[in-house]
Design a protein that fits this description.
Blueprint lengths: L2 E2 L17 E4 L5 E7 L6 E5 L13 H6 L3 E5 L9 E2 L7 H15 L4 E7 L1 H11 L4 E9 L16 E3 L5 E3 L1 H12 L5 H7 L7 H8 L9 H5 L11 H13 L6 E6 L8 H8 L9 E3 L6 H19 L3
Parallel strand pairs: 4-5, 4-7, 7-8, 8-11, 11-12
Antiparallel strand pairs: 1-6, 2-3, 3-5, 9-10
C-alpha cells in the first residue's frame, strides 16, 4: 500500500500539545500514532476524533483525565494527524478504519476501556465496540452520529437523513453541501472547518495546527474520502455497519453517557436516539455542554473532561 508520512517538523512546537509521539505499526505496514498519557495502570480512556481533526483536538481534555488517574489515549486515525496516510482514496473505508483502530487496541493491549467518541469517532469507535463489546467498560458519546438513513429517524434529527414511505431518502441540504465542500476546497484546509464549527474564536496558531498534517494534496486522500462515506442511504457500507452497531448497542447495559453541546445542529437529535436505544444510558446524568459548537473540545475541553471524570467516578470506574 502506498502511503505518505507527514514530516516530523510539521508538528514542532504546536501550541498546547506537549505530548511525546507514540507509534504502533499495523499489519499492513502502516504506522498509527497515538497520545498515551497518564498512569500505565490507570483505566484506559480512548479519545476518538473525527474528520478533519486529529488528537490535537483533545489537548485540553488529556491533562484532566491523566491528573485524575486515567490513562488517556488519543489515536490519530489512519490518514490523519501523525499517522500514515495511504495515497489511494480506495484504501479508506469505514470497515478499514474500524479494523485499523482494533489493531491499535490489540497492539497496545487495551481492555476494560472507556471510549469517548466524537464525530466519526462514533461510527468507527462504536463499530469497534460492536466487534468486541467485552473489552469496553463504558461509553461517552459526544457530538457523534450513527447514520443509517432508516425511516424510524424521521422527525428525530435536526439535520434530516431518513428513508421515506415512497422509497426515497430525505437528506438535509446542508449535509450534502458539507460533502461537496470537502471535495471542492483547494487546498484542503481543516482549519476552515474547525473555525466554522466552533462557537469561540480559535487562535490562529491553534487553527494552523489542524492544517499541519497536510502539507499538500498527496496527504489529503483520507480526509477527503471520509465525508463521502457517510451512511446517507440505507444500502451504503456505513449505514449497514451502523445498523449492526446499533443492534449491539441495543443490548449494551454498561454505563453509557451522552455529552452533546448546545450549538451543533449537525448532530442534534442523536443524543436522544442513543439514549432511547442503549440500556446502559438509563438513569445516567446526561450532559448538555453550553456555549459549544460541533468541535466542543475546542470550545469547552476542560468542561467535557470534568463531565467524563465525574461520570466515571459515579460509575465506579
Amino acid at each position: 500500500m502506498e502511503f505518505v508520512r507527514t514530516p516530523d517538523d510539521r508538528f514542532d512546537k504546536l501550541v498546547g500539545y506537549p505530548f511525546e509521539p507514540r507509534y504502533v505499526e499495523l499489519g499492513s505496514g502502516l504506522r498509527m500514532h497515538c497520545v498515551d498519557e497518564g498512569p500505565r495502570r490507570g483505566r484506559p480512556v480512548l479519545l476518538l476524533h473525527g474528520q478533519p481533526t486529529w488528537s490535537y483536538l483533545y489537548r485540553s481534555v488529556i491533562p484532566t483525565l491523566s491528573a485524575a488517574g486515567y490513562r488517556a489515549i488519543a489515536p490519530d486515525m489512519v490518514g490523519f494527524g501523525r499517522s500514515d496516510k495511504p495515497t489511494a482514496r480506495t484504501a479508506y473505508s469505514v470497515g478499514n478504519h474500524i479494523g485499523w483502530l482494533t489493531e491499535l487496541l490489540d497492539a497496545i493491549g487495551l481492555d476494560d476501556l472507556v471510549v469517548v467518541a466524537q464525530d466519526w469517532g462514533g461510527p468507527i469507535g462504536l463499530g469497534a465496540l460492536a466487534a468486541a463489546p467485552h473489552r469496553f467498560a463504558a461509553v461517552v458519546a459526544t457530538n457523534t452520529i450513527l447514520h443509517t438513513a432508516d425511516a424510524s429517524l424521521a422527525g428525530k434529527l435536526t439535520w434530516a437523513c431518513h428513508a421515506t414511505s415512497e422509497g426515497r431518502v430525505e437528506v438535509e441540504s446542508v449535509l450534502l453541501d458539507y460533502q461537496r465542500i470537502t471535495q471542492e476546497l483547494t487546498p484542503f484546509r481543516p482549519s476552515l472547518f474547525v473555525g466554522g464549527a466552533t462557537s469561540s474564536d480559535v487562535a490562529p496558531a491553534e487553527l494552523a495546527a489542524y492544517d499541519a498534517p497536510f502539507p499538500d494534496e498527496r496527504f489529503c486522500a483520507g480526509a477527503r474520502q471520509l465525508p463521502t462515506l457517510m451512511g446517507l442511504t440505507p444500502g451504503s457500507e456505513c449505514a449497514r455497519i451502523n445498523r449492526r452497531t446499533s443492534a449491539t448497542l441495543a443490548g449494551f447495559s454498561k454505563p453509557f453517557l451522552t455529552a452533546y453541546s448546545d450549538e451543533d445542529p449537525s448532530t442534534r437529535g442523536w443524543e436522544r436516539v442513543l439514549r432511547d436505544l442503549v440500556p446502559g444510558a438509563a438513569g445516567q446524568p446526561h450532559a448538555v455542554i453550553g456555549g459549544a459548537g460541533h468541535f466542543l473540545q475546542e470550545d469547552a475541553g476542560p468542561a467535557l473532561a470534568r463531565v467524563i471524570v465525574d461520570f466515571l467516578a459515579r460509575s465506579g470506574l
